Amino acid sequence: MNAITIVIGALCILAIAYRLYGTFMTAKVLKVTEDETKPTPAHRMEDGQNYVPTNKWVAFGHHFAAIAAAGPLVGPILAAQFGYLPGLIWLLVGAVIGGAVHDLVVLFASMRRDGKSLSEVAKDELGPVAGFCAGLAMLFIIIITMAGLSLVVLGALERNPWGTFAVGMTIPIAMGVGLYYKKTGNLKLASTVGFLLIMVAVAIGPYLQGTWLGDFLTLEKSTLAIALPTYAFFAAVLPVWLLLAPRDYLSTFMKIGVFGALIIGVFIVNPTVQFPALTEFINGGGPIVAGPVWPFISITIACGAISGFHAFIGSGTTPKMINRWKDIKPVAFGAMLVECVVGVMALIAAISMQPGDYFAINSTPEAYETLGMQTVELDTLEGQVQQDLNGRTGGAVTLAAGMTYIFTEFPAFEKIASYFYQFIILFEAVFILTAIDAGTRVARYLIQDFFGNFIKPLKKTDSLVANLIASALASFFWGYLLFSGDISSVWALFGVSNQLMASIGLIIGATVILKIANKRWYMLTCLIPLAYLFVTVMVGGYWMVTNVYLNTESAGYNVINGILSIVMLILGIIILVAAIKKWIALWKIPQVELVKQSEAEVA
Protein backbone atom coordinates (compact mmCIF):
# COMPACT_ATOMS: atom_id res chain seq x y z
CA MET A 1 0.00 0.00 0.00
CA ASN A 2 1.11 3.56 -0.73
CA ALA A 3 0.68 6.47 1.68
CA ILE A 4 -1.32 8.53 -0.81
CA THR A 5 -4.16 6.00 -0.61
CA ILE A 6 -4.42 6.53 3.14
CA VAL A 7 -4.31 10.33 2.84
CA ILE A 8 -7.01 10.57 0.16
CA GLY A 9 -9.28 8.12 1.95
CA ALA A 10 -8.88 9.89 5.29
CA LEU A 11 -9.51 13.37 3.86
CA CYS A 12 -12.66 12.21 2.05
CA ILE A 13 -14.07 10.51 5.14
CA LEU A 14 -13.42 13.53 7.35
CA ALA A 15 -14.82 16.02 4.81
CA ILE A 16 -18.04 14.02 4.45
CA ALA A 17 -18.31 13.63 8.22
CA TYR A 18 -17.96 17.39 8.75
CA ARG A 19 -20.57 18.23 6.12
CA LEU A 20 -23.16 15.63 7.11
CA TYR A 21 -22.62 14.50 10.70
CA GLY A 22 -21.40 17.89 11.89
CA THR A 23 -24.47 19.59 10.45
CA PHE A 24 -26.75 16.93 11.96
CA MET A 25 -25.20 17.38 15.39
CA THR A 26 -25.43 21.18 15.39
CA ALA A 27 -28.76 21.67 13.62
CA LYS A 28 -30.80 18.66 14.77
CA VAL A 29 -29.31 17.40 18.02
CA LEU A 30 -28.14 20.65 19.65
CA LYS A 31 -30.51 22.94 17.72
CA VAL A 32 -28.00 25.80 17.56
CA THR A 33 -29.87 27.38 14.63
CA GLU A 34 -32.69 28.11 17.07
CA ASP A 35 -30.23 29.91 19.35
CA GLU A 36 -28.96 32.35 16.71
CA THR A 37 -31.15 35.13 18.10
CA LYS A 38 -29.65 34.65 21.56
CA PRO A 39 -26.35 36.35 22.42
CA THR A 40 -23.47 34.03 23.34
CA PRO A 41 -21.78 34.30 26.76
CA ALA A 42 -18.97 36.25 25.08
CA HIS A 43 -21.49 39.01 24.30
CA ARG A 44 -23.69 38.83 27.39
CA MET A 45 -20.77 38.80 29.81
CA GLU A 46 -18.16 40.72 27.82
CA ASP A 47 -15.51 42.09 30.15
CA GLY A 48 -12.53 42.61 27.85
CA GLN A 49 -10.56 40.13 29.95
CA ASN A 50 -12.01 36.62 29.74
CA TYR A 51 -15.29 37.05 27.85
CA VAL A 52 -14.39 38.53 24.48
CA PRO A 53 -16.44 38.02 21.24
CA THR A 54 -13.91 36.73 18.74
CA ASN A 55 -13.81 36.20 14.99
CA LYS A 56 -14.63 32.53 14.36
CA TRP A 57 -11.34 31.86 12.55
CA VAL A 58 -9.33 33.41 15.38
CA ALA A 59 -11.37 31.31 17.82
CA PHE A 60 -10.72 28.26 15.62
CA GLY A 61 -7.00 29.05 15.62
CA HIS A 62 -6.90 29.39 19.39
CA HIS A 63 -8.97 26.25 19.96
CA PHE A 64 -7.02 24.10 17.52
CA ALA A 65 -3.68 25.33 18.81
CA ALA A 66 -4.75 24.64 22.39
CA ILE A 67 -6.13 21.12 21.85
CA ALA A 68 -3.49 19.92 19.39
CA ALA A 69 -0.51 19.37 21.65
CA ALA A 70 1.79 16.36 21.83
CA GLY A 71 -1.00 13.78 21.55
CA PRO A 72 -1.69 13.79 17.79
CA LEU A 73 2.05 13.92 17.10
CA VAL A 74 3.32 11.29 19.51
CA GLY A 75 0.36 8.95 20.08
CA PRO A 76 -0.04 7.63 16.52
CA ILE A 77 3.73 7.18 16.20
CA LEU A 78 3.92 5.05 19.33
CA ALA A 79 0.83 3.10 18.28
CA ALA A 80 2.51 2.15 15.00
CA GLN A 81 4.06 -0.63 17.06
CA PHE A 82 0.81 -2.57 16.44
CA GLY A 83 0.89 -1.97 12.66
CA TYR A 84 -0.76 0.73 10.58
CA LEU A 85 -4.33 -0.63 10.57
CA PRO A 86 -5.36 -0.38 14.27
CA GLY A 87 -4.13 3.19 14.57
CA LEU A 88 -5.72 4.30 11.29
CA ILE A 89 -9.10 2.80 12.15
CA TRP A 90 -9.15 4.30 15.62
CA LEU A 91 -8.08 7.73 14.37
CA LEU A 92 -10.89 7.95 11.81
CA VAL A 93 -13.69 6.21 13.69
CA GLY A 94 -12.72 7.69 17.05
CA ALA A 95 -12.45 11.25 15.72
CA VAL A 96 -15.77 11.28 13.87
CA ILE A 97 -18.00 9.33 16.27
CA GLY A 98 -16.17 10.18 19.48
CA GLY A 99 -13.80 13.14 19.46
CA ALA A 100 -15.72 15.61 17.30
CA VAL A 101 -18.99 14.85 19.10
CA HIS A 102 -17.28 15.13 22.51
CA ASP A 103 -15.71 18.50 21.71
CA LEU A 104 -18.95 19.86 20.26
CA VAL A 105 -21.24 18.87 23.14
CA VAL A 106 -18.77 19.99 25.82
CA LEU A 107 -18.43 23.44 24.23
CA PHE A 108 -22.21 23.70 23.83
CA ALA A 109 -22.87 22.56 27.41
CA SER A 110 -20.41 25.11 28.77
CA MET A 111 -21.89 27.93 26.69
CA ARG A 112 -25.38 27.09 27.98
CA ARG A 113 -24.01 27.65 31.47
CA ASP A 114 -22.29 30.98 30.74
CA GLY A 115 -18.92 29.45 29.89
CA LYS A 116 -18.56 27.56 33.17
CA SER A 117 -15.95 24.84 33.61
CA LEU A 118 -16.99 21.24 33.10
CA SER A 119 -16.97 20.59 36.86
CA GLU A 120 -19.46 23.40 37.39
CA VAL A 121 -21.56 22.16 34.48
CA ALA A 122 -21.47 18.66 35.97
CA LYS A 123 -22.71 20.05 39.27
CA ASP A 124 -25.59 21.85 37.54
CA GLU A 125 -26.52 18.93 35.31
CA LEU A 126 -25.81 15.89 37.55
CA GLY A 127 -25.72 17.15 41.13
CA PRO A 128 -23.11 18.16 43.74
CA VAL A 129 -21.51 14.71 44.17
CA ALA A 130 -20.80 14.30 40.45
CA GLY A 131 -19.68 17.92 40.27
CA PHE A 132 -17.20 17.47 43.12
CA CYS A 133 -15.79 14.26 41.62
CA ALA A 134 -15.52 15.85 38.18
CA GLY A 135 -13.75 18.89 39.61
CA LEU A 136 -11.27 16.76 41.52
CA ALA A 137 -10.58 14.59 38.47
CA MET A 138 -10.17 17.60 36.18
CA LEU A 139 -7.80 19.40 38.53
CA PHE A 140 -5.66 16.27 38.86
CA ILE A 141 -5.54 15.67 35.11
CA ILE A 142 -4.78 19.25 34.07
CA ILE A 143 -1.83 19.56 36.48
CA ILE A 144 -0.31 16.30 35.24
CA THR A 145 -0.94 17.31 31.63
CA MET A 146 0.78 20.69 31.93
CA ALA A 147 3.83 19.26 33.68
CA GLY A 148 4.07 16.30 31.32
CA LEU A 149 3.83 18.43 28.18
CA SER A 150 6.42 20.82 29.57
CA LEU A 151 8.87 17.99 30.14
CA VAL A 152 8.78 17.34 26.39
CA VAL A 153 9.51 21.02 25.72
CA LEU A 154 12.47 21.01 28.11
CA GLY A 155 14.11 18.30 26.05
CA ALA A 156 13.56 20.26 22.84
CA LEU A 157 14.81 23.64 24.12
CA GLU A 158 17.62 22.57 26.45
CA ARG A 159 20.86 24.18 25.23
CA ASN A 160 19.05 25.10 22.01
CA PRO A 161 19.29 28.88 21.46
CA TRP A 162 17.66 28.62 18.03
CA GLY A 163 14.54 27.00 19.43
CA THR A 164 14.42 29.21 22.52
CA PHE A 165 14.73 32.36 20.41
CA ALA A 166 12.04 31.36 17.91
CA VAL A 167 9.60 30.23 20.61
CA GLY A 168 10.32 33.29 22.73
CA MET A 169 9.75 35.67 19.82
CA THR A 170 6.22 34.36 19.33
CA ILE A 171 5.30 36.16 22.58
CA PRO A 172 5.99 39.81 21.58
CA ILE A 173 4.85 39.10 18.02
CA ALA A 174 1.52 37.74 19.27
CA MET A 175 1.05 40.70 21.62
CA GLY A 176 1.69 43.08 18.73
CA VAL A 177 -0.87 41.27 16.56
CA GLY A 178 -3.40 41.33 19.41
CA LEU A 179 -2.95 45.06 20.01
CA TYR A 180 -3.13 45.92 16.31
CA TYR A 181 -6.23 43.80 15.71
CA LYS A 182 -7.91 45.21 18.82
CA LYS A 183 -7.27 48.76 17.59
CA THR A 184 -7.99 48.43 13.86
CA GLY A 185 -10.01 45.22 13.40
CA ASN A 186 -7.84 44.39 10.36
CA LEU A 187 -7.32 40.66 10.88
CA LYS A 188 -5.79 39.93 7.45
CA LEU A 189 -2.95 42.45 7.76
CA ALA A 190 -2.29 41.54 11.40
CA SER A 191 -2.17 37.84 10.51
CA THR A 192 0.07 38.34 7.50
CA VAL A 193 2.62 40.50 9.31
CA GLY A 194 2.58 38.27 12.38
CA PHE A 195 3.12 35.11 10.35
CA LEU A 196 5.98 36.68 8.37
CA LEU A 197 7.67 37.85 11.57
CA ILE A 198 7.49 34.33 13.02
CA MET A 199 9.11 32.94 9.86
CA VAL A 200 11.84 35.58 10.13
CA ALA A 201 12.43 34.57 13.76
CA VAL A 202 12.75 30.92 12.73
CA ALA A 203 15.14 31.82 9.91
CA ILE A 204 17.34 33.96 12.17
CA GLY A 205 17.66 31.22 14.79
CA PRO A 206 20.62 29.28 13.32
CA TYR A 207 22.74 32.43 13.10
CA LEU A 208 22.61 32.97 16.88
CA GLN A 209 25.19 30.27 17.49
CA GLY A 210 28.35 31.82 18.96
CA THR A 211 26.83 35.26 19.60
CA TRP A 212 26.19 36.87 22.99
CA LEU A 213 22.46 36.43 22.47
CA GLY A 214 22.95 32.80 21.57
CA ASP A 215 24.99 32.25 24.71
CA PHE A 216 22.34 34.04 26.79
CA LEU A 217 19.60 31.80 25.35
CA THR A 218 21.56 28.58 25.84
CA LEU A 219 19.58 27.47 28.87
CA GLU A 220 19.74 24.41 31.08
CA LYS A 221 16.67 22.38 31.99
CA SER A 222 16.56 23.84 35.51
CA THR A 223 16.35 27.39 34.13
CA LEU A 224 13.72 26.47 31.56
CA ALA A 225 11.72 24.69 34.28
CA ILE A 226 11.37 28.07 36.00
CA ALA A 227 10.88 30.12 32.85
CA LEU A 228 8.00 28.04 31.46
CA PRO A 229 5.62 28.28 34.44
CA THR A 230 6.57 31.96 34.83
CA TYR A 231 5.49 32.60 31.25
CA ALA A 232 2.36 30.51 31.81
CA PHE A 233 1.45 32.67 34.82
CA PHE A 234 1.43 35.83 32.71
CA ALA A 235 -0.42 34.07 29.89
CA ALA A 236 -3.15 33.09 32.37
CA VAL A 237 -3.46 36.60 33.84
CA LEU A 238 -3.26 38.85 30.76
CA PRO A 239 -6.44 39.52 28.74
CA VAL A 240 -7.16 36.65 26.35
CA TRP A 241 -7.09 38.95 23.30
CA LEU A 242 -3.60 40.30 24.10
CA LEU A 243 -1.49 37.13 24.16
CA LEU A 244 -3.34 33.82 24.28
CA ALA A 245 -5.66 34.12 21.27
CA PRO A 246 -3.25 35.81 18.79
CA ARG A 247 -0.31 33.55 19.77
CA ASP A 248 -2.36 30.39 19.31
CA TYR A 249 -3.90 31.77 16.13
CA LEU A 250 -0.47 32.47 14.61
CA SER A 251 0.89 29.13 15.78
CA THR A 252 -1.96 27.44 13.94
CA PHE A 253 -0.55 28.73 10.65
CA MET A 254 2.71 26.99 11.46
CA LYS A 255 1.00 23.78 12.49
CA ILE A 256 -1.30 23.54 9.50
CA GLY A 257 1.48 24.72 7.18
CA VAL A 258 3.91 21.98 8.25
CA PHE A 259 1.37 19.22 7.90
CA GLY A 260 0.06 20.76 4.68
CA ALA A 261 3.61 20.48 3.35
CA LEU A 262 3.74 16.88 4.51
CA ILE A 263 0.49 16.13 2.68
CA ILE A 264 1.88 17.71 -0.50
CA GLY A 265 5.10 15.77 -0.03
CA VAL A 266 3.16 12.51 0.32
CA PHE A 267 1.22 13.26 -2.87
CA ILE A 268 4.43 13.95 -4.79
CA VAL A 269 6.68 11.26 -3.32
CA ASN A 270 3.91 8.74 -2.61
CA PRO A 271 6.06 6.73 -0.19
CA THR A 272 5.40 3.04 0.27
CA VAL A 273 4.01 1.93 3.61
CA GLN A 274 6.78 -0.25 5.04
CA PHE A 275 4.80 -1.54 8.01
CA PRO A 276 2.43 -4.52 7.95
CA ALA A 277 -1.24 -3.99 8.78
CA LEU A 278 -0.69 -5.89 12.05
CA THR A 279 2.55 -6.71 13.85
CA GLU A 280 3.43 -9.51 16.23
CA PHE A 281 2.86 -7.16 19.19
CA ILE A 282 -0.95 -6.93 18.93
CA ASN A 283 -1.27 -9.38 21.82
CA GLY A 284 1.14 -7.43 24.01
CA GLY A 285 4.81 -7.58 24.89
CA GLY A 286 5.94 -4.77 22.60
CA PRO A 287 9.03 -2.67 23.37
CA ILE A 288 7.07 0.60 23.23
CA VAL A 289 3.59 -0.22 24.58
CA ALA A 290 3.61 -3.26 26.84
CA GLY A 291 -0.11 -3.98 26.68
CA PRO A 292 -2.25 -5.56 23.92
CA VAL A 293 -3.70 -3.63 20.98
CA TRP A 294 -7.00 -3.28 22.83
CA PRO A 295 -7.49 -1.34 25.01
CA PHE A 296 -4.12 0.36 24.54
CA ILE A 297 -4.62 1.53 20.96
CA SER A 298 -7.35 3.87 22.26
CA ILE A 299 -5.27 4.95 25.25
CA THR A 300 -2.01 5.49 23.36
CA ILE A 301 -3.77 7.53 20.64
CA ALA A 302 -5.74 10.03 22.71
CA CYS A 303 -5.58 13.45 21.01
CA GLY A 304 -6.21 12.82 17.33
CA ALA A 305 -9.15 10.52 18.04
CA ILE A 306 -10.77 11.60 21.33
CA SER A 307 -9.20 13.34 24.29
CA GLY A 308 -10.45 14.52 27.64
CA PHE A 309 -7.91 17.34 27.59
CA HIS A 310 -10.11 18.99 24.96
CA ALA A 311 -12.83 19.32 27.59
CA PHE A 312 -10.62 21.74 29.52
CA ILE A 313 -10.36 24.04 26.52
CA GLY A 314 -13.97 23.50 25.42
CA SER A 315 -15.20 24.51 28.89
CA GLY A 316 -12.40 26.95 29.65
CA THR A 317 -11.19 29.62 27.26
CA THR A 318 -13.10 28.82 24.05
CA PRO A 319 -16.75 29.18 25.28
CA LYS A 320 -15.91 32.68 26.46
CA MET A 321 -14.77 33.66 22.95
CA ILE A 322 -17.50 32.30 20.62
CA ASN A 323 -19.12 35.14 18.70
CA ARG A 324 -22.17 33.29 17.31
CA TRP A 325 -23.74 29.99 18.29
CA LYS A 326 -23.27 28.46 14.86
CA ASP A 327 -19.50 29.05 15.14
CA ILE A 328 -19.25 25.97 17.39
CA LYS A 329 -19.36 23.70 14.33
CA PRO A 330 -16.11 24.90 12.71
CA VAL A 331 -14.44 25.69 16.04
CA ALA A 332 -15.18 22.43 17.90
CA PHE A 333 -16.23 19.80 15.37
CA GLY A 334 -13.95 21.15 12.63
CA ALA A 335 -10.84 21.58 14.79
CA MET A 336 -11.13 17.99 16.02
CA LEU A 337 -11.23 16.65 12.47
CA VAL A 338 -8.22 18.77 11.50
CA GLU A 339 -6.39 17.33 14.49
CA CYS A 340 -7.29 13.86 13.21
CA VAL A 341 -5.55 14.75 9.94
CA VAL A 342 -2.47 15.68 11.98
CA GLY A 343 -2.63 12.28 13.66
CA VAL A 344 -2.97 10.45 10.32
CA MET A 345 0.03 12.28 8.88
CA ALA A 346 2.10 11.52 11.99
CA LEU A 347 1.19 7.84 11.57
CA ILE A 348 2.28 7.98 7.91
CA ALA A 349 5.61 9.54 8.92
CA ALA A 350 6.22 6.53 11.18
CA ILE A 351 5.00 3.71 8.92
CA SER A 352 6.91 5.06 5.91
CA MET A 353 10.12 4.14 7.72
CA GLN A 354 11.58 0.67 7.72
CA PRO A 355 10.29 -1.23 10.81
CA GLY A 356 13.86 -1.93 11.94
CA ASP A 357 14.69 1.79 11.81
CA TYR A 358 11.46 2.72 13.60
CA PHE A 359 12.02 0.31 16.48
CA ALA A 360 15.70 1.30 16.76
CA ILE A 361 14.64 4.90 17.43
CA ASN A 362 11.72 4.12 19.74
CA SER A 363 13.25 1.31 21.78
CA THR A 364 16.08 1.32 24.27
CA PRO A 365 19.24 -0.33 22.89
CA GLU A 366 18.73 -3.25 25.28
CA ALA A 367 15.14 -3.83 24.18
CA TYR A 368 16.04 -3.48 20.50
CA GLU A 369 18.63 -6.22 20.73
CA THR A 370 15.95 -8.68 21.82
CA LEU A 371 13.81 -7.98 18.72
CA GLY A 372 16.20 -9.59 16.25
CA MET A 373 15.78 -6.70 13.78
CA GLN A 374 18.32 -4.87 11.65
CA THR A 375 18.37 -1.21 10.66
CA VAL A 376 18.13 -0.40 6.96
CA GLU A 377 18.28 3.34 6.27
CA LEU A 378 19.01 4.63 9.77
CA ASP A 379 22.76 5.15 9.33
CA THR A 380 22.18 7.16 6.16
CA LEU A 381 19.46 9.21 7.85
CA GLU A 382 21.70 9.96 10.82
CA GLY A 383 24.34 11.27 8.46
CA GLN A 384 21.82 13.53 6.74
CA VAL A 385 20.44 15.07 9.94
CA GLN A 386 23.86 15.02 11.65
CA GLN A 387 22.53 13.48 14.83
CA ASP A 388 22.47 10.10 16.54
CA LEU A 389 18.90 8.77 16.44
CA ASN A 390 19.25 5.40 18.19
CA GLY A 391 17.23 5.02 21.38
CA ARG A 392 15.56 8.44 21.21
CA THR A 393 12.26 7.16 22.55
CA GLY A 394 9.04 9.12 23.00
CA GLY A 395 7.89 9.65 19.42
CA ALA A 396 8.98 13.25 18.85
CA VAL A 397 12.27 12.34 17.17
CA THR A 398 10.51 9.69 15.07
CA LEU A 399 8.17 12.31 13.59
CA ALA A 400 11.08 14.58 12.64
CA ALA A 401 13.09 11.65 11.29
CA GLY A 402 10.11 10.21 9.42
CA MET A 403 9.24 13.50 7.73
CA THR A 404 12.90 13.99 6.80
CA TYR A 405 13.01 10.44 5.45
CA ILE A 406 10.03 11.15 3.17
CA PHE A 407 11.40 14.44 1.84
CA THR A 408 14.86 13.05 1.11
CA GLU A 409 13.27 11.58 -2.01
CA PHE A 410 13.79 15.05 -3.47
CA PRO A 411 17.44 15.17 -4.68
CA ALA A 412 18.02 18.79 -3.66
CA PHE A 413 16.53 18.24 -0.21
CA GLU A 414 19.52 16.33 1.14
CA LYS A 415 21.49 19.57 1.46
CA ILE A 416 18.97 21.05 3.90
CA ALA A 417 17.95 17.81 5.65
CA SER A 418 19.60 18.77 8.93
CA TYR A 419 17.93 22.22 8.88
CA PHE A 420 14.56 20.63 8.14
CA TYR A 421 14.99 18.08 10.93
CA GLN A 422 15.75 20.80 13.48
CA PHE A 423 12.84 22.88 12.21
CA ILE A 424 10.44 20.00 12.88
CA ILE A 425 11.84 19.60 16.39
CA LEU A 426 11.17 23.33 16.89
CA PHE A 427 7.72 22.97 15.37
CA GLU A 428 6.87 20.25 17.87
CA ALA A 429 7.97 22.47 20.76
CA VAL A 430 5.72 25.31 19.57
CA PHE A 431 2.91 22.80 19.06
CA ILE A 432 3.10 21.82 22.71
CA LEU A 433 3.68 25.29 24.18
CA THR A 434 0.42 26.61 22.76
CA ALA A 435 -1.40 24.00 24.83
CA ILE A 436 0.58 24.88 27.95
CA ASP A 437 -0.47 28.54 28.05
CA ALA A 438 -4.14 27.75 27.38
CA GLY A 439 -4.05 24.82 29.79
CA THR A 440 -2.67 26.97 32.60
CA ARG A 441 -5.46 29.47 32.08
CA VAL A 442 -7.96 26.61 32.25
CA ALA A 443 -6.27 25.35 35.45
CA ARG A 444 -6.80 28.82 36.87
CA TYR A 445 -10.54 28.58 36.10
CA LEU A 446 -10.68 25.13 37.70
CA ILE A 447 -8.95 26.31 40.86
CA GLN A 448 -11.33 29.24 41.14
CA ASP A 449 -14.36 26.99 40.58
CA PHE A 450 -13.22 24.15 42.84
CA PHE A 451 -11.59 25.97 45.76
CA GLY A 452 -13.99 28.89 45.37
CA ASN A 453 -16.65 26.67 46.91
CA PHE A 454 -14.66 26.84 50.15
CA ILE A 455 -13.05 30.28 49.75
CA LYS A 456 -15.79 32.46 48.26
CA PRO A 457 -13.67 35.49 47.19
CA LEU A 458 -11.49 33.18 45.04
CA LYS A 459 -14.50 32.35 42.86
CA LYS A 460 -14.81 35.91 41.52
CA THR A 461 -13.39 35.78 37.99
CA ASP A 462 -13.67 39.58 37.71
CA SER A 463 -11.37 40.04 40.70
CA LEU A 464 -7.74 40.78 39.81
CA VAL A 465 -6.52 39.50 43.17
CA ALA A 466 -8.45 36.23 42.81
CA ASN A 467 -7.15 35.78 39.27
CA LEU A 468 -3.55 36.43 40.34
CA ILE A 469 -3.77 33.96 43.24
CA ALA A 470 -5.39 31.21 41.15
CA SER A 471 -2.93 31.72 38.29
CA ALA A 472 0.01 31.61 40.70
CA LEU A 473 -1.29 28.39 42.27
CA ALA A 474 -1.84 26.74 38.89
CA SER A 475 1.64 27.68 37.66
CA PHE A 476 3.23 26.63 40.95
CA PHE A 477 1.54 23.21 41.06
CA TRP A 478 2.67 22.04 37.65
CA GLY A 479 5.87 24.07 37.79
CA TYR A 480 6.92 22.27 40.97
CA LEU A 481 6.30 18.89 39.36
CA LEU A 482 8.23 20.02 36.30
CA PHE A 483 11.21 21.34 38.30
CA SER A 484 11.41 18.28 40.54
CA GLY A 485 10.94 15.89 37.65
CA ASP A 486 8.65 13.68 39.75
CA ILE A 487 5.95 13.88 37.12
CA SER A 488 7.94 11.55 34.87
CA SER A 489 7.12 8.70 37.23
CA VAL A 490 3.35 9.20 36.78
CA TRP A 491 3.24 10.17 33.09
CA ALA A 492 1.82 6.74 32.24
CA LEU A 493 -1.28 7.75 34.21
CA PHE A 494 -2.09 10.40 31.65
CA GLY A 495 -3.31 7.99 28.97
CA VAL A 496 -5.95 6.40 31.21
CA SER A 497 -6.93 9.58 33.06
CA ASN A 498 -7.19 11.55 29.82
CA GLN A 499 -9.69 9.12 28.32
CA LEU A 500 -11.57 8.99 31.61
CA MET A 501 -11.93 12.75 31.31
CA ALA A 502 -13.36 12.27 27.82
CA SER A 503 -15.89 9.83 29.28
CA ILE A 504 -16.97 12.49 31.77
CA GLY A 505 -17.43 14.96 28.91
CA LEU A 506 -19.61 12.49 27.01
CA ILE A 507 -21.66 11.79 30.16
CA ILE A 508 -22.44 15.49 30.55
CA GLY A 509 -23.12 15.82 26.80
CA ALA A 510 -25.59 12.93 26.93
CA THR A 511 -27.39 14.57 29.86
CA VAL A 512 -27.72 17.90 28.06
CA ILE A 513 -28.97 16.23 24.88
CA LEU A 514 -31.58 14.27 26.84
CA LYS A 515 -32.84 17.57 28.24
CA ILE A 516 -32.98 19.65 25.07
CA ALA A 517 -33.35 17.32 22.07
CA ASN A 518 -36.68 16.85 20.34
CA LYS A 519 -35.97 13.12 20.00
CA ARG A 520 -34.54 11.15 22.88
CA TRP A 521 -32.66 8.70 20.68
CA TYR A 522 -30.32 11.57 19.76
CA MET A 523 -28.74 10.78 23.13
CA LEU A 524 -27.10 7.78 21.41
CA THR A 525 -24.68 10.17 19.70
CA CYS A 526 -22.93 10.38 23.08
CA LEU A 527 -23.89 7.04 24.62
CA ILE A 528 -22.32 4.90 21.88
CA PRO A 529 -18.81 6.38 22.11
CA LEU A 530 -19.22 6.61 25.90
CA ALA A 531 -19.94 2.89 26.24
CA TYR A 532 -16.81 1.97 24.28
CA LEU A 533 -14.55 4.50 25.94
CA PHE A 534 -15.63 3.82 29.51
CA VAL A 535 -15.10 0.08 29.17
CA THR A 536 -11.74 0.74 27.48
CA VAL A 537 -10.62 3.00 30.33
CA MET A 538 -11.65 0.54 33.01
CA VAL A 539 -9.95 -2.40 31.31
CA GLY A 540 -6.81 -0.37 30.56
CA GLY A 541 -6.62 1.02 34.09
CA TYR A 542 -7.11 -2.41 35.65
CA TRP A 543 -4.44 -3.89 33.35
CA MET A 544 -1.93 -1.20 34.31
CA VAL A 545 -2.62 -1.57 38.04
CA THR A 546 -2.38 -5.36 38.12
CA ASN A 547 0.38 -5.88 35.55
CA VAL A 548 2.59 -2.83 36.08
CA TYR A 549 1.98 -0.50 39.02
CA LEU A 550 1.30 -3.11 41.72
CA ASN A 551 3.32 -5.90 40.14
CA THR A 552 6.56 -6.20 42.11
CA GLU A 553 8.23 -7.98 39.19
CA SER A 554 7.49 -5.16 36.75
CA ALA A 555 10.02 -2.45 35.94
CA GLY A 556 7.18 0.07 36.30
CA TYR A 557 6.26 -1.04 39.83
CA ASN A 558 5.00 2.03 41.68
CA VAL A 559 2.50 1.91 44.54
CA ILE A 560 1.65 5.62 44.26
CA ASN A 561 0.80 5.24 40.59
CA GLY A 562 -1.38 2.27 41.44
CA ILE A 563 -3.25 4.16 44.15
CA LEU A 564 -3.76 7.20 41.92
CA SER A 565 -5.07 4.97 39.12
CA ILE A 566 -7.55 3.29 41.46
CA VAL A 567 -8.76 6.65 42.79
CA MET A 568 -9.28 7.96 39.25
CA LEU A 569 -11.25 4.88 38.21
CA ILE A 570 -13.45 5.12 41.31
CA LEU A 571 -14.18 8.79 40.55
CA GLY A 572 -15.26 7.79 37.05
CA ILE A 573 -17.60 5.10 38.37
CA ILE A 574 -19.19 7.52 40.87
CA ILE A 575 -19.85 10.06 38.11
CA LEU A 576 -21.37 7.43 35.82
CA VAL A 577 -23.66 6.08 38.57
CA ALA A 578 -24.83 9.62 39.37
CA ALA A 579 -25.51 10.20 35.68
CA ILE A 580 -27.53 7.02 35.26
CA LYS A 581 -29.70 7.97 38.24
CA LYS A 582 -30.23 11.40 36.68
CA TRP A 583 -31.10 9.90 33.29
CA ILE A 584 -33.69 7.60 34.83
CA ALA A 585 -35.32 10.53 36.62
CA LEU A 586 -35.32 12.70 33.48
CA TRP A 587 -36.69 9.88 31.32
CA LYS A 588 -39.89 9.85 33.38
CA ILE A 589 -40.64 13.45 32.43
CA PRO A 590 -42.47 13.98 29.08
CA GLN A 591 -40.01 15.27 26.49
CA VAL A 592 -41.95 18.46 25.69
CA GLU A 593 -42.09 19.39 29.35
CA LEU A 594 -38.42 18.48 29.83
CA VAL A 595 -37.36 20.80 27.00
CA LYS A 596 -39.35 23.66 28.55
CA GLN A 597 -37.77 23.02 31.96
CA SER A 598 -34.33 22.99 30.40
CA GLU A 599 -34.92 26.28 28.62
CA ALA A 600 -36.13 27.84 31.85
CA GLU A 601 -33.02 26.57 33.68
CA VAL A 602 -30.63 28.55 31.52
CA ALA A 603 -32.87 31.52 30.76
From TrEMBL:
Transmembrane segments: 88-109, 129-156, 162-181, 193-212, 224-244, 256-273, 293-313, 333-353, 419-443, 464-483, 489-514, 521-545, 557-580
Membrane protein topology class: Multi-pass membrane protein
The organism's place on the tree of life at top rank: Bacteria
InterPro entries assigned: CstA, CstA_N
Similarity comment: Belongs to the peptide transporter carbon starvation (CstA) (TC 2.A.114) family.
Localization: Cell membrane
Keywords, comma-separated and alphabetical: Cell membrane, Membrane, Transmembrane, Transmembrane helix, Transport
Domain CstA N-terminal intervals: 2-538
Protein's UniProt name: Carbon starvation protein A
Pfam families: CstA
Source species taxonomy: Bacteria, Bacillati, Bacillota, Bacilli, Bacillales
